[in-house]
Amino acid sequence: MTRAEVSIGKEKIMRIIDKIYIDGAFVTPHGEEMFDLFNPATGQVIGKVQLGDQEDARRAIAAAKRAFVSFAQTSKEERIAMLHRLRDAVLAHADALTEATIEEYGGPVSRAVWATRYAADCFLNAAKTLEHYDFVRRIGTADVTMESLGVVGLITPWNNDYGFICNKLATAIAAGCTAVIKPSEMSATQTLVLTQALYEARLPAGVFNIVTGRGDVVGAELTSHPDVAKISFTGSTAVGKGILRAGAETMKRVTLELGGKSPTLVLDDADLKEAVAHAVTAGFLNSGQACVAGTRILVPEARLAEFLTLLKATVEQIKVGDPRDPSTAIGPMVSEKQYDRVQRYIRLGIDEGATLVTGGPGRPEGLNGGYFTKPTVFAAVTNDMTIAREEIFGPVLCVLSYRDENEAIAIANDTVYGLQAYVLSSDIEHARAAAARIVSGRVLINGVHNEPLAPFGGFKQSGIGREYGVFGLEAYLEPKSVIGPAA
Ligand code: NAD
Questions:
Q1: Is 381 left (phi over 0), alpha (psi -120 to 50) or beta?
Q2: How far apart are the first and last CA of the chain?
Q3: Of the N and C termini of the chain, which has fewer Cβ atoms inside 10 Å?
Q4: Whose CA is nearest to atom 26 of ligand 1?
């Protein structure tokens, strides 16, 4: 067994990550391309990763295919035990995972600690779901069994690297599927620390394989390979559409968790102080790099001036900067490319005629290195502006006003997305009535909540299918009916 050793944190060494994980072993990739890894808080290169290629993807798929034969036969109890071991293994590496998130992603420490806890809990939640799940049921005269799909390809983005990996892997294991994981190439350090943790859970060889590589190389191979039964993808809507098209050739099952442009609906009876606090939390989740960020804030016209005064004061107090500082709420953007993208949208908002309430182009004062961007709020935004329609994926909020609730609901639903929405009101019945009219996979009332056993996923172009709980599990299973005389 070869293991790639990596030192994270205080020792400022240049690290070389030259191992991927296939068939229970850390192996040198066949691919030879080297890819730079950055610390986004400084803009410095901190390491290099050797990327896997098509051949590596094929080897991983073959290993997962071999492992599936016996893994699909494991009992519920065996899989629950594996899920608990995986959780313990992640927790045992919590500090290293948190450190890697801060250094390689620029995640503020509070967020990084949360991300590690979330990742570990994914295994626990999958175990809970599995415990109560019935794989065999009688429907009329048929015996219906829920069968494991086979080898699954799990493709994840950079904005919560090991959280997405753990959630997808936990569900695949609960369902008796084997997996080839293709994380973002920009998250190689976080992935390596996670792989070392998962390795210590002693799962049978080939049950999970991890190949860091380019999307259009390793990801594309997974998407087109006939031995892959399903793709679970989290990422941009544009890439998701390509995966759906490519997967059609081999009729792959797909779960797509894509982008969003979530509305935060402030109802006319809301306590504005509380509403502003919730709107800011929802809007700047994960430094604004969150698919579920509430980036379109809908405010009643009559209360707009008061709301904007409170919002401006709150946003101007937010600490942007060193992700290691516990008081930092917003860290850097993940990359120069992402920084440029956010800057482009801020300039576009100004050009489109929106009113800049706070923030704007450029870096915050005193933060000249790194990919820091100013938390920005636009008012007088109309829903046809590009900044109200497209996902910016940075700390940029749009405030839109409405005359009455029918108009508010119409604006909330006037989007190609439908991932998450927020409703703020001092009357819960009122909030629930509004929530019922919003076309969205999740609607959160008066806060940023999570229910890890309830379905997560989007309407419209925010995706296909659901993750979490029973809905998530069944996306990795195929029903089979046996009908005939009883034995
Ligand atoms: P991305 O779509 O560029 O990449 C996501 C993953 O897909 C990466 O691993 C990438 O290498 C891979 N990929 C790229 N091209 C591919 C191809 N042709 N075939 C197969 N795989 C390919 O997204 P990103 O920039 O890494 O992440 C940001 C996006 O992710 C945002 O749009 C955000 O909304 C979305 N996102 C969605 C959710 C959700 O749960 N709905 C959560 C987080 C992020």
A1: beta
A2: 48
A3: C
A4: 157
Please indicate, yes or no, if residue 399 is contained in any of the structural domains. Answer: yes
Strands 142-148 vs 477-483: parallel, antiparallel or unpaired: antiparallel
- Is residue 487 one of the residues assigned to a domain? no
* DSSP reduced 3-state for 116: helix
pTM over 0.85: yes
Q: The domain that contains 219 carries what CATH number? A: 3.40.605.10
Domain that holds residue 304: 263-451
Per DSSP, 187 falls in state G
Q: Is 212 helix (H, G, I), strand (E, B) or coil?
A: coil
Joined together, the tokens standing for residue 452 give 């890890």
Question: Which of 168, 184, 211 best tests ligand 1's pocket when mutated (most atoms within 8 Å of CB)?
Answer: 184
Overall number of domains in the chain? 2
Contact 155 CB / ligand 1 (< 6 Å): yes
Q: Which helix (H) or strand (E) holds 435?
A: helix 428-436
Check pLDDT > 50 for residue 6. no
Place of tokens 């609901």: 409
Say if CB 468 and CB 125 are below 8 A apart. Answer: yes
Task: Answer whether 292 contacts ligand 1 (Cβ < 6 A).
Answer: no
* Mean pLDDT in residue range 281-295: 98
Residue 291 annotated as catalytic: yes
pLDDT of residue 13: 56
CA of 154 to the centre of ligand 1 (A): 11
Going by alpha carbons, the residue nearest to atom 11 of ligand 1 is: 215
Q: Are residues 296 and 214 in the same domain?
A: no
Determine if ligand 1 sits within 6 Å of the CB of residue 215: yes
- Three-state DSSP at 24 gives coil
Catalytic residue from among 122, 177, 291, 398: 291
Q: Which of 99, 104, 221, 257 is catalytic?
A: 257
Distance 405 CA to ligand 1 centre (A): 34
166 is catalytic: no
**Is 184 inside any structural domain?**
yes
Mean pLDDT along residues 385-405: 98
**What pLDDT sits at residue 486?**
78
**Measured from the CB, is residue 243 less than 6 Å from ligand 1?**
yes
Q: Could you tell me if 23 and 151 lie in one domain?
A: yes
Q: What is the pLDDT of residues 207-248, one digit of tens each?
A: 999 999 999 999 999 999 999 999 999 999 999 999 999 999
- CATH code where residue 377 lies: 3.40.309.10
